[in-house]
TrEMBL record:
Protein known as: Phosphatase PAP2 family protein
Keyword vocabulary terms for this entry: Membrane, Transmembrane, Transmembrane helix
Keyword Disulfide bond: no
InterPro entries: PAP2/HPO, PAP2/HPO_sf
Keyword Endoplasmic reticulum: no
Origin species: Antarcticibacterium flavum
Transmembrane segments: 7-24, 44-61, 174-192, 198-218
Matching SUPFAM superfamilies: Acid phosphatase/Vanadium-dependent haloperoxidase
Residue stretches making up the Phosphatidic acid phosphatase type 2/haloperoxidase domain: 116-216
Length: 253
């Protein structure tokens, strides 16, 4: 009985810790929900502070004795044979939530095409960064398998949760924040299942959040949607002179 209580307390505190991370991240964007700020260096910095802190803090923690002792305590509490494949499926839940909300008519920030565009970009960039780091950093998992740092499941989950948050933070806050709870649980079970160290998860969360923040920060610059009534048009104008020829390209959006 005592061992079971310890197990549940450890799971609880890992989950709470990761949710505090995401709460601090989303709290910095509350001011943006009612007033559109001009694009500038200060706004870029605001979007980077928390995820950059997570990445730096997790990197410093990586390989330290505290991390190893923490992992030993977790496995001692849940049992060496404990395994629950929660993260293998839960990381996709924010995507399902977003499109289900669209189908039910919940108002979102963007059209479904823009949502899909931003989601695809977030996934591609997050995976590229994550797996590059995995290849560059020869850190072994707790189970002695390579490619531990950072956690791809966690970075993917937080990138998906970030897109869900950005789309529904103004119209359905509960839905917007719920994705981060799922992402936090995904990261927690990567540690509990002995597939990642706590630093792998923290850095993975930071990467997913950072990528999504930057994509939505720059989104107005790359706005294009062929499904909207307001037509985005490309105009090609050929130019011919005596000794020169060329092509002008203009885009209206």
């Amino acid at each position: 009985m005592r061992k079971n209580k310890r197990k549940y307390w450890l799971i609880y505190w890992i989950f709470i810790f990761l949710n505090l991370i995401t709460f601090s991240t989303t709290a910095q964007t509350v001011k943006d929900t009612t007033i559109a700020k001009p694009f500038g260096g200060k706004r870029v910095l605001q979007k980077m502070i928390v995820p950059a802190t997570l990445i730096l803090g997790g990197s410093i923690l990586s390989g330290k004795d505290f991390e190893k002792e923490f992992q030993t305590d977790v496995r001692g509490a849940v049992g060496e044979n404990y395994e629950f494949k929660f993260g293998d499926y839960a990381r996709y839940v924010p995507i399902v939530q977003m499109y289900t909300a669209d189908a039910l008519g919940v108002k979102s920030k963007n059209h479904w095409f823009d949502q899909t565009k931003n989601l695809a970009l977030a996934i591609v960039v997050t995976d590229f960064i994550t797996f590059r780091l995995k290849n560059w950093i020869p850190k072994k998992r707790p189970g002695q398998v390579t490619e531990s740092f950072p956690s791809a499941h966690t970075s993917f989950a937080f990138a998906n949760a970030g897109v869900l948050y950005q789309e529904f933070k103004d119209t359905s806050p509960f839905l917007a924040y719920s994705g981060f709870g799922i992402a936090a649980a995904t990261g927690a079970f990567r540690v509990i299942n002995n597939t990642h160290w706590i630093s792998d998860v923290i850095v993975g969360a930071g990467i997913g959040i950072l990528v999504t923040n930057l994509i939505y920060l720059f989104d107005p610059i790359i706005k294009w949607n062929p499904f909207l009534k307001k037509k985005n048009s490309f105009v090609f104008i050929p130019r011919f002179d005596q000794d020169q020829y060329g092509l002008y390209l203009t885009m209206k959006y």
